[in-house]
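Title: Comparing notes on inverse folding

I've been comparing how different people in this forum approach sequence design from structure. To keep things fair, I'm posting one structure and asking everyone to reply with a full sequence. Here's the target:
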């Protein structure tokens, strides 16, 4: 800020009008600042910065998006862009944030790539695909982790939460395991920190499943899941604005269980729905999976 310089030069008998003209602002702006040196905007920024520092100190994994959600949950009206600017000025980066610049490195894979972009399987429960997507509401973002069977294209497990943590991926995996009781299934994901976490790795090994991870920066290495999420966003979620997370959560549960599984016929399945396809190739598994469907009220519980 150049306004204090005007005061210093005025003390040396340099006219205010001359200094303001040289520095490129009006006398009115200078005198407005002199009447109120700390503007309301500056005071609000200082308050928001202090709150952001406290939130980041409590959990260093929080990035600016999570901090913005916490600020709004506390009743403060603030945009993500403003929180990003304030966090950048204070260097409040998430502990898991990617390194910036040409020397950044991705997290190391914890599994080999067992899929090699071959997203088909000869039978159900031989290959599962998993990933995480997000969608905005007026209350903040909501995250969905889904597990998809590569053979029937059925969503065998999913989890919804307002936090994108390892527990989100673990909960989706545990739902899939409880529904299908698989043995030796390969589950393929990207190199997200949620899938590289110790909790997720232990959940895989404890269930006798085989992990698989694609390459860094290659979206085609999990294209089947990206395609499902794009279909969900376009046909189920982008048609309206969502006021609350609970509304969006209910819509996701209804779309997966009602529309996608039971109404959406897919050419890759011979113009059958995932439920119909599984009922034809393996009626016992389809019946068992249907009986293990969680009721809607249980699905609405936050992770």
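Reply #1:
Here's my take.
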């Amino acid at each position: 800020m150049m306004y204090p310089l005007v005061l210093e030069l005025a003390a040396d008998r340099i006219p205010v009008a001359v200094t303001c003209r040289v520095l490129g602002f009006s006398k009115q702006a200078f005198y407005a600042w002199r009447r109120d040196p700390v503007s309301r905007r500056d005071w609000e920024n200082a308050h928001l910065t202090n709150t952001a520092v406290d939130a980041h100190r409590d959990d260093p994994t929080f990035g600016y998006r999570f901090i913005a959600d916490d600020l709004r949950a506390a009743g403060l009206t603030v945009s993500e862009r403003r929180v990003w600017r304030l966090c950048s000025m204070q260097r409040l980066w998430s502990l898991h944030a990617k390194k910036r610049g040409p020397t950044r490195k991705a997290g190391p894979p914890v599994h080999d790539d067992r899929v090699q972009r071959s997203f088909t399987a000869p039978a159900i429960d031989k290959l599962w695909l998993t990933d995480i997507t997000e969608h905005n509401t007026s209350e903040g973002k909501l995250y969905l982790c889904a597990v998809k069977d590569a053979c029937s294209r059925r969503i065998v497990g999913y989890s919804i939460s307002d936090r994108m943590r390892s527990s989100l991926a673990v909960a989706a995996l545990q739902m899939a395991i409880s529904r299908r009781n698989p043995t030796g299934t390969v589950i393929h994901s990207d190199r997200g920190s949620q899938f590289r976490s110790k909790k997720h790795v232990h959940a895989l090994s404890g269930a006798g499943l085989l992990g698989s991870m694609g390459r860094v920066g290659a979206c085609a290495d999990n294209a089947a899941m990206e395609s499902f999420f794009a279909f969900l966003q376009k046909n189920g979620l982008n048609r309206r604005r969502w006021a609350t997370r609970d509304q969006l959560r209910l819509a996701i549960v209804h779309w997966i269980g009602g529309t996608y599984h039971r109404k959406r016929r897919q050419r890759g399945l011979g113009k059958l729905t995932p439920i119909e396809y599984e009922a034809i190739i393996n009626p016992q598994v389809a019946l068992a999976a249907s009986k293990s469907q969680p009721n809607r009220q249980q699905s609405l519980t936050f992770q």
